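Comment thread on ticket #2218

A.B. wrote:
> Attaching the input chain for the structure job we discussed in standup.
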Amino acid sequence: MSWWGKLLGGSFGFALGGPLGALVGAALGHTVDARRRGSPSARERTQTAFFTATFSVLGHLAKADGRVTRDEIRLAETVMAQMQLGDELRALAKNLFRQGKAPGFALDEVLDQFKRECHRSRLLLRMFIEVLLQAAYVDGVLHPAERAVLLHICSRLGITPTQFDHLDAMVRDAHGRRPRAGAARGDDLAGAYAVLDVSPQAGDDEIKRAYRRLLNQHHPDKLVAKGLPEEMMRLASQKTHEIRKAYERIRAARGF
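C.D. wrote:
> Ran it. Output below, let me know if you need it in another format.
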């Protein structure tokens, strides 16, 4: 049985335990007790933790300004659409989202367990923040309240403010500020540099190294091997597409 089949069957909540296990159990409508059996592999545990943390924390992020608007509901819907979730997984994701925006959501405890279940993998933690940022930019703007919550999340996961700023610039220029009809080519090129996280003054060799490093970090197979749910591989694939487009844009402008 696949990862999501086991998850929907309710066999992982008890195995995970802690706040993530409780979230899964509540989202599935199962009572987590000792009679439940399930021995997920290390990768399946990580996949479950990533999926659960993503949609519950998205719910908390949507309520960052104290209320949930239609645009903020689209935070979760955008990610679900990108992942092409089936009806059952979509229902589970919506239930997790609702729990995340409920009063008393244990954000810090969820993040602490998530970090442990990911074995502190820098690749997965970085991808987690990128998913949250992509969703936050669904309305084209990262609001101050959202930024404050994201910085707190980064602090809890061991991601520095400087690292967050780099991720923010990449996501903003790749997703939050797509080229408009008639947009200046210079703006498009500036966005390409931001996606690769390099300065426009960087040398050709530095740009090539940055491109290879980012492709390696976002390689879908590598992320899935570390525990990214297969359904989220589409998000990683989209990111590698953005990285390649940015690199080709810079290559064309520089002629190397």
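A.B. wrote:
> Thanks. Noting for the ticket: The chain has a mean pLDDT of 80.
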